[in-house]
Amino acid sequence: MPDLTGMSRSMVDLSHLAVPGAVIAVRVTPNARHAGIALADGQIRIAVTVIAEDGRATEAARDALAAAMGVAKTRLVLLRGAKARDNVFGLDPAGRG
For residue 96, is it within any domain? Predict the structure, then answer.
């Protein structure tokens, strides 16, 4: 399994998680050297290059997760972890975006 330093070259396909009402737990690494998504020990890890300030890292993680899932970023709603490394996102069943 790739570590955080090897994530920039490959994006994980998470389209199987794009089920309305799905709850997705991720671990975010802000201020990373390279951005990307990896699966490590059954956990989704998202590395973002922005710093964890004013919600920028969480927003970047949401954008990356939406791209990996193949859904609009507006459909992903942060449920928990706005100021934490461990975030929980929900896929909006209404399909607002």
Answer: no
Q: How many domains does the chain have?
A: 1
Give the range of the structural domain holding residue 60, as residue numbers without chain letter: 4-91
Residue 17 φ/ψ, nearest 5 degrees = -85, -5
**Start-to-end Cα distance in the chain:** 32
Burial class of residue 95 in the structure, from the number of CB atoms within 10 Å of its CB (0-12 exposed, 13-18 middle, 19+ buried) = exposed
User: Structure tokens of 60?
Assistant: 């970047």
58 Cβ partners below 8 Å, 6+ apart?
28, 52, 78, 81, 82, 87
Q: How many CB atoms lie within 10 A of CB 66?
A: 20
pTM of this structure: 0.84
Q: How does pLDDT run across 21-51, given as a tens digit for each residue?
A: 999 999 999 999 999 999 989 899 999 999 9
